[in-house]
Amino acid sequence: MPPITIPPFRSHWALAGGHRQTLAGAFFPGRLPDERAVIRHIPLPDGDTLAVHDDCPLDWTNADPVVVMLHGLAGCHRSSYLVRMAALLNECGIRTFRLDLRGCGAGFGLALKPYNAGCSDDVLAVLRAVIEWCPNSPISLFGFSLGGNIVLKLLGETPERVPSELVRAAAINPPIDLASCTYGLSRWPQRHYDAYFVRQLLQRLRELQQQRTDFVPPAFARTPRRLVEFDDQYTAPRSGYRNADDYYQQCSSEQFIPAIRLPTLILTSRNDPLIPIASFERLSPPANVRLHIAEGGGHLGYLATGNGERSRDWLQTQLRDWVLPQ
Asked: What digits encode the pLDDT tens for the residues 158-213?
């Protein structure tokens, strides 16, 4: 694995605690670079289409490194952690592809099926397209939150399917035990996150129904108020699973991590309010999988102080060094 040293995370003085880190990272992203990416479309075998955002540095040439990135639940290519990561990598001459999972971002209206925590076949289709566009380049794959679970599942469920062009991967705050994460949202104060996710997902369904006349809306027995109810009545059956529990059992990446062969970094925080740290503490990863548990950072927050970097760069710096070890 790349010989990188990950420094301790030191929280910004005003953002101590997992909830503050999480909320500040999500709702106070600061100024983000303007969108200049080329949007590429990737058709899928079932008729849906994915959108991928290609940020190519001016001095990039074929055989230079490439990074493919996946967002989390209710996110898209404009999620601040993806935009900042792409900008930092582009500065280093690395070409990036930010994937909009089915129906998200620029892919809204291009897919009838929902994305889910186990849609590794979709990511494999993206990797194959990127290999065609960049045939001589080493590829790294980053997944954030739900996207991190998808990455780990892809790498470990059938390692022989992983393209040889993929040289390393990283999963940041991945929900490797989906059941414990989702059911845990029903507890206080996580209920606020639960309600937020459900509102976002229901709004997206209403908008899709307005845009696509061929979309058949779910016949909810009652409007979901919790994420597990939404998954049970919509995500799971529309994705081919019996119910939410079957979906969580089949798609949780914890069971696939022991089979991962690729150099892989799993980075999470001890005070992530959305993902129980117990799922990582019981993990026994293989030698090629490096697990780093930061003492703070919340869920995709990592707003730091010190460390010689800008306050929002701690996470991005570690991932940059994972691709380009110093």
From this structure: 999 999 999 999 999 999 999 999 999 988 889 999 999 999 999 999 999 999 99
> How many beta carbons lie within 10 A of that of residue 282, not counting itself?
9
Evaluate whether 114 touches 238 at the Cβ level (below 8 Å).
Answer: yes
pLDDT in tens, 215-230: 999 999 899 999 999 9
Closest alpha carbon to 30 in 17, 7, 8, 12: 12
DSSP state of 305: S
CATH 1.10.540.10 fits 13-176+257-323, yes or no: no
Strand, helix or coil at 138?
A: coil
* CA-to-CA dists, residue 132 to 42, 62, 111, 126, 136, angstroms: 12, 11, 23, 10, 9
For residue 167, the surrounding DSSP H or E stretch is strand 166-172
- Helix runs in 167-190, H state only: 178-184
Tell me the CA end-to-end span of the chain in Å, nearest whole number.
13
pTM above 0.90, yes or no: yes
Of 185, 210, 209, 215, nearest in space to 198 by CA? 185
Q: In what order do the strands lie in the sheet with 66-70?
A: 38-43, 49-55, 95-100, 66-70, 139-144, 166-172, 264-269, 289-294
What amino acid occupies position 313?
D
pLDDT > 70 fraction of the chain, expressed in percent and rounded: 97
- Look-up: residue for tokens 């799971």? 236
| Phi, psi for residue 72 in degrees, rounded to 5 | -105, -170
Q: How many Å separate Cα 307 from the centre of its chain?
A: 25
| C-alpha span between 251 and 180 (Å, rounded) | 13
CA–CA distance from 269 to each of 3, 27, 46, 138 (Å)?
Answer: 21, 19, 37, 28
Cβ within 8 Å of residue 321, ≥6 positions away: 2, 4
The tokens for 266 are 């799993």
Name the β-bridge partners of 166.
Answer: 139
Tell whether the model's pLDDT for residue 310 goes beyond 60.
no
Q: What residue segments make up the domains of the chain, in order of their start?
A: 13-176+257-323, 178-251
